[in-house]
Amino acid sequence: MITGTVALPHGITARPVRNGDKNFLAKLFRDNRTDLQAIDATKDFIDMTVDMQLDAQINGYGSTFPNAIYLILEKNGSRIGRVTLDVGPIELRLIDLSFIKKAQNRGYGSAIIQWVMNAAAQTRRPLVVPARRDNSIFVTHLIKAGFQEDTSISDDVIARMVWFPTSDEMNGIGAIKPRKAASGNV
Questions:
Q1: Which residues contact 29 (CB under 8 A, 6 or more apart)?
Q2: Is residue 184 domain-resident?
């Protein structure tokens, strides 16, 4: 459990979500749901749909991942994103990672993925990351980092990508770097 602030790469820090973050999280969700913003409907209908999706996400995460860790990402004291992790008995799951528009495409996401990969290796667990199939840049990044798709837990929209740490990585002997995917079962 993370109770304080954790220093991450690129000068980013992570801290647990607080009650005062609710409006930030709602705005972050709305701003990143460009798929919903693009539907041919009235603004009121789009806003209602986005709100329903946000409620469904919050409730779905809570029931599916009751032990999830919800973190706010900050840089220079300003909130720039969020990450949601679940430490399961078998695997570590990156449930969600999102950034404000200003913080996107700066390498922050890659740094967070690397941090979570290190956590998976330290806890001796595979790392599962959901990737939207229409986000080919993200899927390609994960494959280059050594992830492979687990088709048994994927669907038509989301590819569940899995990374297996090597014994050297789990023992802190080898640095985690891009490599060909290791095989195994979650």
A1: 50, 53, 54, 57, 98
A2: no
C-alpha span between 73 and 42 (Å, rounded): 33
Exposed/middle/buried for residue 129 (C-beta within 10 Å: 0-12, 13-18, 19+):
buried
Read off the tokens for 20: 């005062």
d(CA 140, CA 27): 28
pLDDT tens digits, the chain, 186 residues: what are they? Answer: 577 789 998 999 999 988 898 888 888 887 877 776 677 778 788 778 777 777 776 666 666 788 888 899 999 999 999 999 998 889 999 998 999 999 998 999 999 999 999 999 999 999 999 998 988 888 999 999 999 999 999 999 999 999 999 998 998 887 887 777 665 555
CATH number for the domain including 38? 3.40.630.30
What residues make up the domain containing 158?
A: 6-171
Q: Is residue 182 part of a domain?
A: no
Q: How many domains does the chain have?
A: 1
Q: Which H or E run contains 55? A: helix 43-64
